[in-house]
Design a protein that fits this description.
- By secondary structure, this protein is of the alpha+beta class.
- It is about 25% helix and about 30% strand.
- A six-stranded mixed sheet has the order 1-6-2-3-4-5.
- It is globular and about 40 Å long.
Length: about 120
């Protein structure tokens, strides 16, 4: 899905998309006020990744960029076994499969970092 990727770890814990959605909503990142060039898409994505990187679980969650936008990316299970890549819009907490996100040039092509 991308030409550049950086993984900071080799092992990650997994959670379901449903639990991921609940956790991301609980962070309240989406409630922050967007301020051009001060608190815009990259700050939203950094803040959400910061919440995901607390604790010892090491979930596969990181930051991704397209040419015009910064957002988050994660890998979650949908049935307890199969893994799916999701794009997460931190400004709205919307989760999209990577296939859905590829249809919008705001999200694709992308570069990503999983921490």
């Amino acid at each position: 899905y991308c030409n550049e990727i950086y993984l900071s770890d080799t092992k990650y814990s997994l959670t379901s998309k449903e639990e991921a959605g609940k956790f991301s909503m609980e962070t309240k990142i989406q409630a922050n006020k967007w301020i051009e060039e001060q608190y815009d898409c990259d700050e939203f994505s950094f803040a959400l990744m910061g919440y995901w990187n607390t604790g010892l679980y090491q979930y596969p969650f990181g930051i991704a960029w397209s040419k015009p936008h910064a957002f988050n990316i994660g890998i979650f299970t949908t049935d307890g076994k199969n893994k799916t890549i999701y794009i997460i819009e931190p400004q709205s907490n919307k989760f999209m499969t990577i296939e859905e996100a590829k249809k919008d040039s705001k999200y694709y092509p992308l570069r990503l970092i999983l921490i």
